[in-house]
Amino acid sequence: MLFMKIEDLQKLELFSEIDKEKLEKIASFSMIKKFRKENIVFYEGESPRFFYGLIEGEIKLYKSSFKNTEVLLQTFKAPSMVAEMTAFEDIKFPATAQILTQKATLILIHKDRFIEMIKSDANFSFCFIKSLTKKIKILERTINQNMIYDAYTNVINYLKTHHQTFFSTKKVQIAQELNMTPETLSRVLRRLRDENIIDEVNQTINLV
Is residue 1 part of a domain? Predict the structure, then answer.
């Protein structure tokens, strides 16, 4: 565990507009923890003890199917809160969180004391609601990807939102995020190359 500074909290959008006094109070019941690749942050079915703020690295949330295979639900890139609604509702985690990058840093905020603060401070409650609203929009996009759009449309939408990191991200990871097989992704990328939408040699994307 590392010493907690208010500057670490300010890396997260949820705390970006909070005054110094409140940040110092939150820091007093928070801590920083370092993780390495493939470390588990929390397990599916585990009861939350903290709110988690990712300030370095990436995390994936996945469920295990009855065949013991992973079903990827979502990935988070720093800076981002992770599974805050689960902690707020005090229900068991519906998925497992695992580190994707070589290293990651998380802020662990004591659940009960943080909830007490949310409920007693109207302005901070509003900031928390704004954070949850953004997560709902992300969830809606994920549902559309998995249930409505075909593979081609999913990849096009991914290119629109990840154009800066597409060429540096492993194709296996992209396939997992889109819940499709690597073979399906390869077929779609081949079509996009033929249509001159992506140029992997020059690393350019043309969606106009």
Answer: no
